[in-house]
Structure formats: structure tokens, C-alpha cells
Write a structure and sequence with these properties.
Helix content: 25-40%
Strand content: 25-35%
Order of helices and strands: HHEEEEEHH
Strand order of the largest sheet: 1-2-3-4-5
Number of strands: 5
Largest sheet: 5 strands, antiparallel
Low-confidence stretches: none
Distance between the termini: 24 Å
Structural class: alpha+beta
Oligomer: single chain
């Protein structure tokens, strides 16, 4: 695990720390060989190429997806207008399961 990412989580809004930690654990449980990087001032996860990133704001954690168009599970929750990246906002730990984040990550990796 990348120390810069650990520091990023530790220095984030207190209400977002458990969400960021849970997402980090989920990513590594689904993709044990994921490369955790810190670039663009945020955690970025890659295999052969970048597949998702995390970003913290005051009110939510943003989980961004590269190749977001592969996602079919709850795709209506995906926000943004970017050509190559879009995101979903997560405000509670319960939403990780409720939104099907594991399925979304698996789909983006296909």
C-alpha cells in the first residue's frame, strides 16, 4: 500500500475516512494485483492501465472510473461529462454495497 494514499485518507474529512478505507480494501480484495499510486493529488488504481481513482470532498467521496462506459450496474448513478472519466459520489459506507460498487469495479476491469 502506498504511504501517500494512507496519508491522504488520514488527512481527509473525518466522515470520509471510513469510506475511503473501505473502498481501498474493496479494490484490493477484488484486484489483489492492483497498483496503488498517488497522482493528480489523489489515489489512482491500475493494472495494465488506470481503472479508478478516489477523491475526497467535504460532503462525499468521489469514486472515479476510467472506461466508465463498461459499467452497466447502476450506471444511472454515474455523474460527469468527461470523455474518458466519470464518477460516482458516495456519502455513507452503506452506499458502497447499496450502489453495487464491487460490481461496478469488476465491470470496468472487463
Amino acid at each position: 500500500m502506498n504511504q501517500e494514499v494512507t496519508n491522504y485518507i488520514k488527512n481527509s474529512e473525518e466522515n470520509n475516512q471510513p469510506i475511503l478505507g473501505s473502498l481501498r480494501e474493496l479494490i484490493f480484495s477484488l484486484v489483489p494485483n492492483a497498483n496503488e499510486q498517488f497522482k493528480w493529488s489523489r489515489p489512482v488504481y491500475a493494472t495494465d492501465k488506470d481503472f479508478c481513482y478516489l477523491k475526497t470532498t467535504k460532503k462525499a467521496v468521489t469514486l472515479g472510473f476510467f472506461e466508465f462506459n463498461k459499467i452497466k450496474t447502476n450506471s444511472h448513478l454515474i455523474e460527469g461529462t468527461g470523455k474518458s472519466m466519470r464518477h460516482i459520489k458516495i456519502k455513507t459506507i452503506e452506499e458502497i454495497e447499496e450502489f453495487g460498487i464491487a460490481e461496478m469495479i469488476n465491470e470496468v476491469l472487463k
